[in-house]
Amino acid sequence: MGDISISNGDHHAAAVGVQRKSCWYEEEIEENLRWCFALKSILHTGASQYQDIQLLDTKPFGKALVIDGKLQSAEIDEFIYHESLVHPALLNHPSPKTIFIMGGGEGCKRREILRHWAVEKVIMCDIDEEVVDFCKSHLVVNKEAFYDPRLELIINDARAELERREEVYDVIIGDLADPIEGGPCYQLYTKSFYEFVVKPRLKHGGIFVTQAGPAGIFSHTEVFSCIYNTLRQVFKYVVPYSAHIPSYADTWGWVMASDSPFTLSADELDLRIKQRIKGENRYLDGKTFTSSSTLSKAVRKSLDNETHVYTEGNARFIYGHGSAYKQQH
Amino acid sequence: MGDISISNGDHHAAAVGVQRKSCWYEEEIEENLRWCFALKSILHTGASQYQDIQLLDTKPFGKALVIDGKLQSAEIDEFIYHESLVHPALLNHPSPKTIFIMGGGEGCKRREILRHWAVEKVIMCDIDEEVVDFCKSHLVVNKEAFYDPRLELIINDARAELERREEVYDVIIGDLADPIEGGPCYQLYTKSFYEFVVKPRLKHGGIFVTQAGPAGIFSHTEVFSCIYNTLRQVFKYVVPYSAHIPSYADTWGWVMASDSPFTLSADELDLRIKQRIKGENRYLDGKTFTSSSTLSKAVRKSLDNETHVYTEGNARFIYGHGSAYKQQH
Amino acid sequence: MGDISISNGDHHAAAVGVQRKSCWYEEEIEENLRWCFALKSILHTGASQYQDIQLLDTKPFGKALVIDGKLQSAEIDEFIYHESLVHPALLNHPSPKTIFIMGGGEGCKRREILRHWAVEKVIMCDIDEEVVDFCKSHLVVNKEAFYDPRLELIINDARAELERREEVYDVIIGDLADPIEGGPCYQLYTKSFYEFVVKPRLKHGGIFVTQAGPAGIFSHTEVFSCIYNTLRQVFKYVVPYSAHIPSYADTWGWVMASDSPFTLSADELDLRIKQRIKGENRYLDGKTFTSSSTLSKAVRKSLDNETHVYTEGNARFIYGHGSAYKQQH
Amino acid sequence: MGDISISNGDHHAAAVGVQRKSCWYEEEIEENLRWCFALKSILHTGASQYQDIQLLDTKPFGKALVIDGKLQSAEIDEFIYHESLVHPALLNHPSPKTIFIMGGGEGCKRREILRHWAVEKVIMCDIDEEVVDFCKSHLVVNKEAFYDPRLELIINDARAELERREEVYDVIIGDLADPIEGGPCYQLYTKSFYEFVVKPRLKHGGIFVTQAGPAGIFSHTEVFSCIYNTLRQVFKYVVPYSAHIPSYADTWGWVMASDSPFTLSADELDLRIKQRIKGENRYLDGKTFTSSSTLSKAVRKSLDNETHVYTEGNARFIYGHGSAYKQQH
C-alpha cells in the first residue's frame, strides 16, 4: 500500500508530480520589469533608523541581502561586484597601504581589500550601525574581515567623516547607494564633493573608485554616464568599466579616477595579481579587465557625448522614486 | 542632517516611501488562476513519506499550513472550515459520545469536537505521522487538543483502520484529501466504501459527515455534486451545505448523511449550541446553518441532476493532476 | 522525421509538453493579496476623462471589464452580481414601472431590469460617456438592452440629475463605485444623500437598492456594515444580503431599503419570478434569496453593532487609495 | 465639479493616482527564476505544426516574439543579437558572396546580411512555414528583407537541405534552437553534423557561425562551452564571443569557426564596417568585438577545460525540459 500517499492527509491536498515553486522574492527592476527568485527561506528581517533590511535564502542565487526592497548582494555572484570594485584600483596603485571606504556595510569590500598584502590600514565608514551589525551577525562568509586588526570601522556620514579627517589615503572607494531622489545621497556624487572633499584626501598618485550604477546598453544613461562625466571634470584620468551580474539582471558599472595615468597592460595586471593578492580571484584578471573596460559602441558613444555634471542643485536619478521626484521634474 | 538616510548605505538602495511587498506565496487554484499572499516568513518546511509540508506566516491570513503546494488551513479563517465540518453533525446527533475522524492531522477538528461536553472518546486516524508531529510542534493554538485524555491518535490508513475495528461510533468525520487522480484516495469516497466500511461502523442513529471539496457556483461540479450523489445512494437523509472561506478563494462544501432524519430548526440548533458546547462559536449558529444548507439555484439544480456515483473504477477529480488523468479522460 | 519539431526554429525555443501560461492579469485585492488570471488577449484599452478602461479576455472568467485596475464584471459570473442587484428590489415591489439607475454604464443592469414585463421606463444616469460608449461597442452580450425603447440614457452626475428631476420612481438602484477616498463618491452613500435626494424621488412604497461593497466574513467591515447602518437611519425596513462572486475572490453585498415592509416568502418570490420575468434566472430564486439574506453569525453581529453613519465629513473607505487618504487620516 | 471623477462609475472602481501595471508577460528563465514584462497588448497568437507563436507588445522591450513560451527577440534589443550573429563572420571573410542561414524565420538575420554590399545570394532555410509567414505579416520592421531579390527562402529541415545541395557557401549561419531534449535538434550541433554536413558546404576560406546559447558567468556551462568544444574538434580556428542582451536577462554567446585564421584587428574591423556595410551598426564595431571576444576569467577557464563533445548519442541541454531529461541524467 506504498502508493496510498495522500489518501489520508488533509482536505484538498495536491497531486503528486513535479511540484511548482510557491514562495517567491519579487523585485521591480523598473516599473515595468520584474525579477523573481524562488525562495527557500526568509532568514531575517529588520529595520534600522535608515533602511529596511532582509536576508533571504533564494534558490537561484543563494543568500541575498535586500535593503529597502532592492537586492544588494547575492551569495553566488557578489564576487563579480566586489572584485570589480576593489582590485582594479588597488592593483593600479603602486603601493596601496591606506584605504578609505565610504559605505560598504556588508563586509565583502573589506574581505577583498584585506587580501592585498600591501594594505596596512582600512577605514570603513558606514552611516547605518544596524546594517553593519546585521551583516556581522548573519553573513558568516565575511566574518573574518570584521575582525582583521587592520580594519577600523566608523559609524558616521561619509562626507562628514572625510571632511573631519586630516590624513590622506592611497585609495578611496565609494560603495554608496546610487544618486537617488529624496535624500542628500547625490551630494556624494557631485563635482564639488569629488573636488573639495575626496581629492584633497587622496595622497599624490592616489586613486578614487566608485560603483556607478547600471551600465547596460540602455540603463547606462540613468547615472553611469553622468558619474563618469562628473569625474572627468575633476580628475585627469578616468576609466569606466562594467560587468554583467546575473542576480542584478543587468550589467553594472564602476568608474576609477586619478591624476596619475593608468598604464598597466593585461599581462602586468596578471603579474600584480599574482604578487600582491592572497588567494585566487574568481572573476578578475588582466584579460577580464581589458574586456570590462572596453565598452560597447553604444555605451562609449553616450559616455563621450554626456554633458551632464552632478552639482548640488542638479541630479539625475535611477528608478525607484516617489512623489518628491515627480514634483521636482 | 537627520534625513541623510540612505546616503551611506550600500549600492543601489531604493528610495524611501511606501515599500512594495517583495516576498509572496503563490498558489495555482487552477491552471489559469493564481492566488498570492504577501509573506512575513517561512516558518518551517519539511517532507514526510507522503507529502511536502510548509508552515508559512502570511500577511493576509496569518499562519498557513501548506501541503504539497496547496493551502490546507489558515490561522484567521480555519474556524469557518472546522466549525462547519464538526458542529452540524454533532449537534444533530442526540448524544454524540464516540467520534471517529479519518484524517485531520493538523488538530483543529479535535479542538472543535472536544468542546462538546458529551464527547467521551475521539479516535483520530491519520496516515502521515510526520504531518501529525509537525502540527503538534508548530501549531501552538491546537496544542491543548493533542493532550486531551479523551483523544486517541492512530497512525494508519483510515480504511484499513475502520475495517479492522469492531466498535461502532456516533459520528464519523471524513477530513480526507479530495478524491484526486493518481492515488487510491477516491476509494475513501466511493459508494462501496460508504456502504460496506463507514455505515457498518455507525451506531443506530449515527451520522457521517465529510468535507466535500469546492462548492462554488462553478466549482461544485468538480467533486461536491458527486460526493453528494454518492452518499444519497447509501443514506436515507443527506444534507449538503457550504460556506465561503476567504483564504481558499472559494466557497467550500460539506455533506452530512444519516438514516435518521435531520429535523432541527435554527432555534433548536442555537439551543443545543448553548447547552452542549464549551465556549462560543465564531461562525456557526442556527441561522448561519440555515443559510449554509440552503444552496443557490444553480448549485441545487446540479445536485438534483447529478447522476455520477463514485465507484472503484470510476472517479471524478479536482484540479491539480497530470498526465494519467489526461490519458484516462 | 516527423518529430523534428523545433530543430529548425529560432534560437532558444522551449521544449514540447504542457505549456505554462505566460500572460497574466494581476489584481491587488488588498495590499497583501493578489488575484491573477491567465490572459487570452487584451481586447481594448482606453481612458475616459474619469477612468482607465480595459476589456480583457481571460481564461478563467471570460471577457472582463477592468476600470482603474479593478475588475468590474466578468462574463461568466456577472449574472450573480446583476441578478442580485436588480431582482430582489423589483420583485418585492408590487408594480415596478419606473426605475432610476445611478451608474451602471456597462449595461447588465438594464438587461436584467428590462426582463421585467412591468417595467415601462428606465432612466440610466452615468457620468462617464466614454465608458458607456466603450461598453456599447465592445460588450456584445448587452447590446440589445442599449436599444430597448423603454431605456433613457443620461450622461450626468447622478446626484445632480436626481436633484434636478421632479418625477418620482418605483425603484432606484445604486450601482456606484464604493465610497472611496479622493473624490466625492462617498457623498452618494451619505445619510443626507439618502434622506434628502434619494428618498424624495421614491414613490410611496418605493424601494431603494444599492451595491454595498465586499461582504465577506472579514471584508464586510470595510463599507458594507456602514452602508447598512446609514440606510437604517433613513428607511424603516432595510435588508442586507450577499453572494459569493468567484471572479471577485470575495462575497459581495447589497442593501435594499424601503418604508414599506419586505414580506415575501421564498415561495412567493418564486411565483413572482415566474409571472413577471421574461426568461429564466440563472442565479436568483426564492431559496437563493433566503440564503443570501440570512447572513452568518459574525456578519450579523457586526451589522447589529455598527454605529458608524456616513455623513459628508466622515467616511470609511475600501482598499486602493493613495496619498489624499493618508493625509486625511 | 471637475473632480467628481469616479463618483458615478461602476461598483468598486479604484482610486486615482499612479496605476499599478496589471497585465504581465512572465517567462521562466529557469525553474527558480522568472522575468516579467508589463504588457501593452497581445498582438497575435498562433500555433504552427511545430511551435506556439505569440507576438506581444511589452512596455520595457517593445514588440516581442515568443515561441513556445520563450522570448525569441524583442524590438528594442534584437540588434545586439543579430549584429553579433551576422557581422563578425561576414566581416572576417575576404569576400562574402553566398550565405546559407539555417533557421532564422523572423527575418532580422537577413536584414543584417543584406546590408553587406558584397552579398549576392542568401539562402534561408527554415522548417516552419507558419512562423516565417507570421513574421512576414507581423514584423513590419523586417519586411524589406523578405522582398530583396538576393534572398531565396526554403521551407525544409536544414540538415536535409544542406545534404541535398551541391553548391558551397562563403558563410553558413546557424540560428537554430538550442540543443534541447526531446527532439533531434541537437543533431544540428553534433561533431558529425559539423564535419560531414556543414564543412563540406563551405568554400575554401569559408566561415561557419552559430548562436551558442547563454554565455553568462554561470549559464555558459549549459551549452556554450560544449558547442565551442565540439567546433574546435572540427575547425582549426574557433572564436567564442558573447554580449549581454537585456531582454534575455543574460549574456548570450556565439561561436565562429573556420580553417582560415581570424586575424582582423579592431581597427581593421572598423575599416571593413565602413567599406562594406550599408548604414551604421548600432552595436558592433571593432572595440565592441574585442570586448565581446575577450571572455572573463571564469568563462575562459571553463571553455579551456571543457571535454564534452556533442555526438548523436550524447547531448547536453539547457533549461526547459521534462522527464526524459531527468531520467537520462
UniProtKB/TrEMBL annotation, chains A, B, C, D:
It catalyses: S-adenosyl 3-(methylsulfanyl)propylamine + spermidine = thermospermine + S-methyl-5'-thioadenosine + H(+). Its EC number is 2.5.1.79. It comes from the Eukaryota. GO terms for molecular function: thermospermine synthase activity. One of its GO terms (biological process) is polyamine biosynthetic process. Keywords: Polyamine biosynthesis, Transferase. Residues 22-259 form the PABS domain. The active site is at D175. Belongs to the spermidine/spermine synthase family. This is thermospermine synthase.
